[in-house]
Amino acid sequence: MRKLFITGIGTDVGKTVASAIITEALEADYWKPVQSGDLDNSDTKKVSALITNGRTRIWPEAYQLSLPVSPHASAAASGITIRLDDIKVPPVINDILVIEGAGGVIVPLNDSQTIADLIVDLECEVIIVSRNYLGSINHTMLTIEAAQRHRLQIIGIIFNGEPTPDSESWIARNSGVNVLFSIPWTSDVNSEWVKEIAGLSSVRTALSGPSQS
User: What is the pTM for the complete model shown?
Assistant: First the structure.
């Protein structure tokens, strides 16, 4: 089974949209192990509403935490501790599982472990989602460096939103990490739009290509 872990350079950079597109393109299964906050409109529910293929199965979260803060703090507020041993990969029906993280790679899950530790524990390949804004070059490069420091296997980067060619080319050139594809900006993210982007040959080719470290 191939496990693709979708992480980001921060919060609200488009991980959920990217996860939906990748899930739809590959007709993969989807799983978000840790949801922190907004349980009534969780990322799992959002992705479920955006998928139209008949093969994808959406798996329930291992942890549902109500407070919209870092998972370690939200868990503590609920009187629990997130334990990696309790986060088990579901019995996936399809050959590919798309796993969406919470925030970035160094987001804490408990007093000593982060999302990076979860990625290592689950033995995943990593896709980094970046959004163009002032400071995003720094945030993207720091995310890549952190992932490499933890010896994570990075497949590539996805840029989300309005394109900034100079920034994107600088990141690609200086990080040595492949750019998979870009997600165009839209004011209306819906299932038809996700299906359209997922169906692009460039997206499917990028996701089936060789991985990088």
Answer: 0.95
